[in-house]
Amino acid sequence: MDIRICNEHEVDDTRLAALYDEVLAPSFPPSELVTRVEFLDAVTDPVSDTCAFVALDATGEVVGGIVGEWFAECRVLLASYVAVAPGLRGGGIGRRLITESLTRWWSRFSPLLIVGEVEDPRVHPATEYGDPVARLRLYDGLGALILPVPYFQPALHKDADRVRGLLLMVFAASPADRSDGYVDASVVRGFLEQNLLACEGRIDPDDEEIGALRAAVDRADRIPMLAPRQYLA
């Protein structure tokens, strides 16, 4: 399919709304997705840390998208959502979207890491929102790597619960990190703390899940990166 990739400033509000309604909402359960109002407010705010790319077909219809959150203090970009419209998955749109957006984000932000969240297929079965096995195979083919930490998505709303059983993956890292298969633990620690604060507003020192996550990151100065195929066995 002939598609065009546009950033959030190159499309109008109607297409950004279509990205949420027609691509993101059918691809993620409500517990994993910010509200429509929150998404549109963030992605249209010129000083927001939210950024996005939208995939348009030859007629200008929205067929996919990727949304990122830039954490300037730790210089990490979280690719929080990657999705293709139902009925068009598996046709190469996602691969093109990820490849181009990562290249452009790397040039724009000069991050230390670009990371993403994905459901662990050992925990989450395939549902109407998508197939975790297929997603992980796609990311494996793109060269993404997994950080072996007990990751969870922080609660996105005051009344929401955390989303557990997720994998934290590295889409892009500095050439030195990629070459030796490790990342700086202090960078990962900074991201985890900033993400928790942004979503939940505080870090409870007595929280067992946070404690387990911190312990995994604090074991050494560097954290190994593992191939996603290890989680598909």
Task: Give an account of the 3D structure.
With 233 residues, the protein is of the alpha+beta class. It has one domain (4-231): Aminopeptidase. The protein has 7 helices and 9 strands. It has helices at 13-24, 36-44, 93-109, 132-141, 175-180, 185-200, 208-218, and strands at 4-7, 50-56, 62-71, 76-84, 113-119, 145-147, 166-173, 182-184, 222-224. The chain has a 7-stranded mixed sheet, with helices on both faces. It has a two-stranded antiparallel ribbon with strand order 8-9. A hairpin with a 4-residue loop joins β3 (62-71) and β4. α1 crosses α2 (36-44). The two termini are 32 Å apart.
Layout of SSEs?
Elements: E1 4-7, H1 13-24, H2 36-44, E2 50-56, E3 62-71, E4 76-84, H3 93-109, E5 113-119, H4 132-141, E6 145-147, E7 166-173, H5 175-180, E8 182-184, H6 185-200, H7 208-218, E9 222-224
Parallel strand pairs: 4-5
Antiparallel strand pairs: 1-2, 2-3, 3-4, 5-7, 6-7, 8-9
Helix pairs in contact: 1-2
